[in-house]
Design goal:
Elements: H1 21-32, H2 36-67, H3 76-122, H4 125-129, H5 133-175, H6 177-184, H7 187-224, H8 226-231, H9 235-287, H10 293-334, E1 356-366, E2 369-379, E3 384-389, H11 395-402, E4 410-415, E5 418-419, H12 425-429, E6 432-436, H13 446-451, H14 459-468, H15 472-477, H16 495-509, E7 513-517, H17 525-539, E8 543-547, E9 559-564, E10 567-572, H18 574-580, H19 583-591
Parallel strand pairs: 3-8, 3-9, 6-7, 7-8
Antiparallel strand pairs: 1-2, 1-4, 4-5, 9-10
């Protein structure tokens, strides 16, 4: 379906359900499957770290309660060695756990970015009509990279802290359940504070990510259009526009910092409240000889270990909320379904001659604004059919529907009796060659761009296609020949050279159906003549649709249709249409006011 139609799930634009933190972690864990050995190593390290952190305060308690009162000098050096050994072992374990989780994190991010990139290729052309390139680039790069920090370090910290918190809380309850319960009474307030601030942080981080996408999109547009900007001396205007977008990003980041600056002191105050409880109530118990001083000191050390996860979480919450905001933007793309896709059980397209038939086709890009109305058209197999008409009459839409970039809302299109909706997209587009006025070339060599039509082509086929397109001469003039770098969008080539490469690429692909959309509209006379000769070779024996404003390019077409407001108003060959004196004659006389009518030309 085309834009404006079939928005079954997300309304007029794709809007996936918000990606919750739970769904974010679920997707991360799905991608972490198969890494169980590395995860097992990390988990063992977590347990060992928790045990060592539990042992160190016990050494402190034993020192205060036994070694000092009993003056056991011989145990001092072993005690110091035990502490240093435990610290060294902690460092080693933390290194192994961090390296393990970083490896898992990188693999997860690699898979997630791959999933996102593959899904972008599944989406239809209509999706890209409604999306900004810079925004999509930001989601694949910036948003995915934000998740990397969560997976590589924050998840490991959460796992370690969760295990440590549980073990130490149970031990403290065993030592003195009353004191521990008083201490734990502060934690619900911490969780409530975290929940309240977390929601606001996620909304703010989403604004940050959207502003980053705005900056990325503006940067992409200005860098690709730098010649236009300079030709209109619009540098100052674009700098102001970029500054406005950058300012929005700055202001969004400032809001996040303010939230974090307010959140962390509240958590710290609640932590100090816990310390005050331990000091006051613990001292009261010690003075009543219900607890030893060593136990109180150990209890304070355990309190620190118990509060460390809270402190860590108060910092990690920023990463989690930022990651959740980034994940929402990623999930929005992953949850978008293509509106043009292979139907269940779609068959391969098998062409006999390549006849294309439009039967009662209706199509609109936007609801209520039809481009084609009850449209009928036949492209006979092996013939050249031309479409002419005013701008906006629907000519390019016809070409897009044949390639199934969009699906019509009414009627159907068939090729050799096979409805397009019932054949696979790959087999359909594999039979179609497209040459347009706006040539798309990739940054790379001439060889790379030609092989896009047939990646496994031999050198002989490549050179034959270049000769047929009159491209071999200018290619040979380059020092590196077919290995010449042409720059981004073929910037190092002239318009005629780029067009001939496009034709050579199509010749190499050897399609049965060829669509020419204003293929010679922007060329000089010499280039146009060379390209017309190349096109004559390309079209021989193929079904061809030619879309043109310049009527000189379609004089030899087997059939010409005049399209106005989504309907065919005239059909015939060049001479027939001139004789009728209708819309085609009007268009012809506008372009060739001095040319004599066909019936008045002298016989040669």
């Amino acid at each position: 379906m085309g834009p404006g139609y079939g928005m079954r799930r997300f309304g007029t634009g794709e809007k996936a359900p918000p990606g919750s933190i739970r769904s974010m972690f679920r997707r991360v864990l799905q991608h972490a499957r198969g890494q169980w050995r590395i995860l097992a190593v990390a988990f063992v390290c977590v347990i060992a770290i928790s045990l060592l952190e539990f042992i160190v305060p016990q050494l402190t308690r034993y020192t205060i309660d036994h070694i000092i009162p009993e003056r056991r000098f011989g145990l001092l050096l072993p005690l110091g060695g035990a502490v240093l050994g435990a610290a060294a072992l902690l460092g080693g374990l933390r290194y192994v756990s961090a390296a393990s989780m970083a490896a898992v994190g990188q693999r997860v991010i690699h898979r997630l970015r791959g999933d996102l990139y593959r899904h972008l290729h599944r989406l239809d052309v209509g999706f890209y009509d409604r999306r900004r390139t810079g925004d999509l680039m930001s989601r694949v790069t910036s948003d995915v990279s934000i998740l990397q920090q969560l997976i590589s370090s924050s998840m490991m910290q959460l796992l370690t802290d969760g295990f440590t918190f549980t073990a130490i809380a149970l031990y403290m309850l065993w030592i003195d359940w009353q004191l521990t319960l008083l201490l734990l009474a502060t934690f619900p307030f911490m969780l409530l504070t975290t929940r309240l601030f977390g929601r606001r942080m996620r909304a703010s981080f989403r604004t940050v990510q959207e502003s980053v996408a705005d900056v990325s999109d503006h940067l992409h547009n200005t860098l690709t259009g730098i010649r236009l900007i300079k030709s209109f001396t619009a540098e100052a205007h674009e700098i102001d526009r970029f500054g406005a977008r950058s300012r929005r990003n700055m202001e969004a980041n400032v809001r996040v910092v303010r939230l974090r600056a307010a959140y962390e002191p509240i958590i710290d105050w609640l932590n100090y409240l816990g310390l005050a409880i331990v000091l006051v109530f613990g001292a009261w118990l010690a003075m009543r000889e219900a607890l030893t001083v060593g136990t109180i000191v150990a209890f304070i050390a355990y309190l620190r270990l118990l509060q460390n996860p809270i402190r860590h979480f108060s910092r990690i919450i920023n990463t989690i909320q930022q990651s959740a905001a980034a994940y929402e933007r990623i999930a929005e793309i992953l949850n978008t379904e293509p509106q043009v896709a292979d139907a269940p059980g779609a068959a391969e397209l098998h062409l006999r001659g390549g006849e294309v038939v439009f039967a009662g086709v209706g199509f609109a890009y936007k609801t209520g604004e039809p481009v084609l109305r009850d449209f009928d058209l036949t492209l006979p197999a092996g013939q050249v059919t031309a479409l002419v008409g005013s701008s906006g009459s629907g000519k390019t839409t016809v070409a897009n529907l044949i390639s199934r970039f969009y699906d019509p809302q009414a009627g159907q299109i068939v090729i050799d009796g096979q409805p397009l909706r019932e054949v696979t997209l790959a087999s359909l587009r594999g039979q179609i060659g497209f040459v347009s006025q706006e040539v798309v070339l990739l940054d790379g060599t001439i060889r790379d761009n030609l092989l896009y039509g047939k990646p496994d082509a031999a050198d002989a086929e490549l050179e034959s296609a270049a000769r047929a397109a009159h491209a071999d001469a200018f290619i040979a003039a380059f020092a590196d020949g077919y290995d010449t770098q042409i720059g981004e969008r073929g910037i190092k080539l002239s318009g005629g050279q780029k067009q001939r490469l496009s034709i050579a690429r199509t010749i190499l692909k050897d399609p049965r159906i060829v669509i020419l959309d204003e293929a010679t509209a922007a060329l000089d006379t010499e280039s146009e003549q060379l390209i017309q000769e190349a096109l004559a070779r390309l079209l021989r024996g193929r079904t061809c649709l030619v879309i043109a404003h310049r009527l000189s390019t379609i004089r030899q077409a087997d059939r010409i249709h005049v399209l106005e407001h989504g309907r065919i108003v005239e059909s015939g060959n060049h001479d027939e249409l001139l004789t009728r004196g209708g819309r085609y004659r009007q268009l012809h006389d506008l372009q060739f006011p001095q040319e004599e009518p066909a019936e008045e030309r002298p016989m040669s």
